[in-house]
Specification:
The chain has 710 residues and is of the alpha/beta class. Strands 2, 3, 4, 5, 6, 7, 8, 9 and 10 form a nine-stranded mixed sheet that branches. The chain has a seven-stranded parallel sheet with strand order 14-15-13-16-17-12-18, sandwiched between helices. Strands 19-24-23-20-22-21 form a six-stranded parallel sheet, sandwiched between helices. The radius of gyration is 32 Å and the shape is globular. The structure holds adenosine-5'-diphosphate (ADP) and magnesium ion.
Length: 710
């Protein structure tokens, strides 16, 4: 039977049921699967040297003849040695293998082998330890650029390499091509066969680069095709037409809007009057004034007889937003209400019936806004604030919930005396403070339109940031006292209380400042005269909010916390933030934290404390002292730590990529994205026969988000 992509691996020599099971863990069942199992790195085994000329600092291949039968000696339980001598024209090499008894049979005297390893040399004596070897002429594991694959226990790299070798040798003919020829030509991409062969067994590193480039492009192209389809689908949705002029709204603001705010509002106004459902992300650094932009949306909805739901991540933030909305919009006759978990009983009943009767225009709250029993009269706009942890899939769900509300779709065909309600889904506006590098935002929010607010309101006090070591601790505490004496308040941030904490008292994290213990120490020994409170993620929501409100009301001088305050309320009176073990945080996160101060008229400081001696750690932190530009910091963070840091593990909800790397493949991403948008515009459903494989690949990549494509 000739081998093909469907051949089960168990049909191949060397793969029994036990190994097959282990291979399945790697996602490998058929020969075709192995083509997609890409090397994580490569070992250059091409160089071949005579013993005498072998380099000392790196491995190379040596062709030599075994000059004796290998000798096995058992040193102790679990340790055996196989020794064998081999010769070439320039000398004799003594080779030692540890715990590889089978070698006694595998190496025969008088036969020639290629050994790959580092040749050690003492005078005229050559030796090698545990070299890779094979018969001269086999050229399977030596004399080439060797792929090194991700493995699992009980599966060797040689086994996997053997399988991919077979796949490359026998399965590439007729491998279907997902990228249209025109596209390959335009973007100078090699064919899929060439790419597959050379990603596994590159002829040289140039061929590898060419292969990799094509595969990265393909992956990003498939990804962005999927995202473009999602976006297409959403924006194809009808939306209620709403008219609203940013200039008219600006009269309600206590300040003239910044240019960035003006532009964001214009974007929103254009979406609202377009007749299509809005799906927009407003992305702006902390303090850039996103609330006013949200208020514009709410105002426009109300003016057009539609209701708006404004969702905040915490009760406290919801309360703050409700106050702000009330202050801004009540003068224009817009009715604002607050719905959180704490609204109960009679009060809640009254609120819900007012909502259903259309007597509330803007409902502010937590996710309670979309819980059972909350019925809108005419929901026209959903705003989600600080939802940067929401991925593609979650946003889909959000829009659905809006649609499920009675105003969106009436199944019963019942009386709908409200002509403006229509059947259109609500417009969606997402506000995010995470300064995601623009390039990355392109894909993460690829299905959204993005307005970037890259300008801070005037008169904001920039935060002076300093990096200090342990030697300055006493002085720093003195500074805290001084600020409090002047009537200010202080945040002190520590790294998170770990899930499995045991660690911080005796483990490697011993000297980490853990919140509870640190707060106690501060209160008892350092600041007995001050009011110290603490808050961390493991407190109950209610306890958390109580402490935060107390701080907000000025009943605490010092708030010790984890990063839970990152997405926080405005305490304009707080003028100093101290971050302990600053080296433990990502730059973007520190920047985000720092945004908690400098929100009032007072001069503000951020002090980063680190005991780290690492030059790189200190360099990173100094970058933060040098700039207040969140986007610049985000780019730096992306460069240094990769995208994982922005969202935690896979929180961005994007499919997992195999080849492409968000940090280093940005240029190619732009290219792939443009090409994808063009293609989707021409063939939105990927229905053309030449796009069939592409369509399949998009589905495969997004299989965890399949519901979005129905
Ligand atoms: P964000 O939500 O983007 O972090 P906010 O909307 O909370 O920022 O605004 C931060 C502060 O700046 C608020 O106190 C707000 O009143 C103020 N602010 C917003 N826009 C302006 C402006 N154009 N001019 C002056 N102050 C502004
Ligand atoms: Mg905000």
């Amino acid at each position: 039977m000739p081998l093909n992509r469907e051949t089960p691996l168990t049909d191949l020599p060397g793969v029994g049921p036990a190994r097959a099971k282990k291979l399945e863990k790697l996602g490998l069942r058929t020969l075709g699967d192995t083509l997609d199992h890409l090397p994580q790195r490569y070992e250059d085994r091409r160089e071949c040297c005579a013993l005498r000329d072998a380099p000392r600092d790196r491995p190379c291949c040596v062709a030599a003849m075994a000059a004796e039968t290998p000798r096995v000696s058992y040193i102790r339980r679990g340790l055996s040695l196989v020794k064998v001598k081999a010769v070439d024209e320039t000398g004799t090499v003594h080779i030692t293998f540890f715990n590889q008894d089978y070698i006694r049979e595998a190496i025969r005297p008088g036969e020639s082998y290629i050994f790959f390893g580092t040749v050690e040399r003492q005078g005229n004596l050559f030796s090698m330890t545990n070299p890779v070897f094979e018969r001269e002429g086999a050229a399977r594991f030596t004399g080439l650029i060797m792929p090194v694959y991700p493995l699992t226990a009980g599966i060797s790299n040689n086994l996997v390499a053997g399988l991919t070798r077979r796949a490359v040798d026998s399965c590439l003919d007729g491998l279907p091509e997902a990228l249209p020829a025109r596209l390959r030509k335009e973007h100078k991409l090699c064919q899929t066969q060439y790419a597959r062969k050379n990603i596994h067994y590159p002829d040289d590193f140039e061929a590898l680069a060419i292969a990799r480039r094509r595969l990265v492009f393909e992956e990003l192209f498939v990804l962005t095709c999927g995202l473009a389809q999602l976006k297409d689908r959403r924006s194809a949705g009808e939306g209620r037409v709403m008219e609203g002029s940013p200039a008219e709204f600006a009269a309600l603001l206590p300040f003239p809007p910044t240019g960035a705010q003006r532009r964001a509002m214009e974007d929103i106004a254009a979406d609202l009057r377009s007749g299509r459902a809005m799906n927009r992300l407003v992305q702006g650094d902390v303090g850039s004034g996103k609330t006013a932009v949200a208020a514009f949306g709410a105002w426009a909805a109300a003016k057009n007889g539609a209701q708006c739901a404004l969702m905040a991540p915490t009760e406290l933030l919801a309360e703050q937003h409700a106050r702000t909305m009330e202050a801004l919009l009540a003068p224009a006759g817009v009715r604002v209400a607050l719905l959180t978990g704490s609204v109960k009983g009679r009060e809640k009943k009254a609120l819900l019936s007012a909502l259903a009767a259309g007597e509330i225009d803007v409902l502010v709250g937590t996710h309670a806004l979309f819980s059972e029993g909350v019925e809108y009269r005419s929901l026209g706009l959903v705003i989600a604030d600080e939802q940067h942890r929401f991925g593609v899939a979650q946003r889909g769900a959000l829009a659905e919930k809006g649609q499920g509300a009675p105003a969106g779709r009436r199944e019963d065909g019942g009386e709908d005396s409200h002509p403006a309600a229509g059947n259109a889904p609500p417009h969606v506006l997402v506000m995010s403070a995470t300064p995601i590098p623009r390039t990355l935002a392109l894909i993460i929010y690829g299905d959204l339109d993005v307005s970037v607010m890259d300008e801070l309101p005037p008169g904001r006090t920039p935060v002076d940031t300093f990096l200090v070591g342990e030697d300055k601790r006493a002085r720093m505490y003195g500074f805290v006292r001084k600020q409090v004496a002047e009537g200010r308040q202080v945040y002190m941030v520590c790294p998170a209380v770990e899930e499995n904490s045991g660690g911080w008292e005796d483990g490697p994290g011993m000297d980490l400042k853990a919140v509870t213990a640190y707060a106690r120490e501060l209160q008892e020994r350092v600041f007995p005269e001050l009011r110290v409170g603490f808050v961390h993620g493991r407190l109950k929501a209610k306890e958390k909010e109580d402490v935060m409100s107390a701080f907000h009301r000025g009943e605490l001088d010092v708030l010790v916390s984890t990063t839970v305050i990152e997405v926080g309320v405005d305490v304009p009176n707080a003028s100093l933030m101290i971050v302990e073990n600053a080296e433990r945080f990502g730059l973007s996160q520190l920047h985000q934290l720092r945004g908690r101060v400098g929100r009032g008229k007072h001069r503000s400081w951020c002090v980063l404390v680190t005991a780290s001696r690492s030059e790189t750690a200190r360099e990173r932190l100094k970058a933060l002292c040098a700039t207040n530009d969140g986007f610049q910091i985000a780019e730096e963070d992306l460069r240094l730590r990769g995208p994982g840091d922005f969202f935690g593990k896979r929180q961005h909800g994007l499919p997992q990529l195999k080849v492409a790397d968000f940090a280093s493949d940005m240029e190619l991403l732009k290219e792939a994205r443009e090409a994808a948008q063009e293609l989707i515009a021409a063939d939105p459903e990927l229905k053309k026969p030449s796009h069939r494989l592409l369509r399949k690949k998009v589905r495969e990549l997004f299989r965890e988000n399949a519901e979005l494509f129905n």
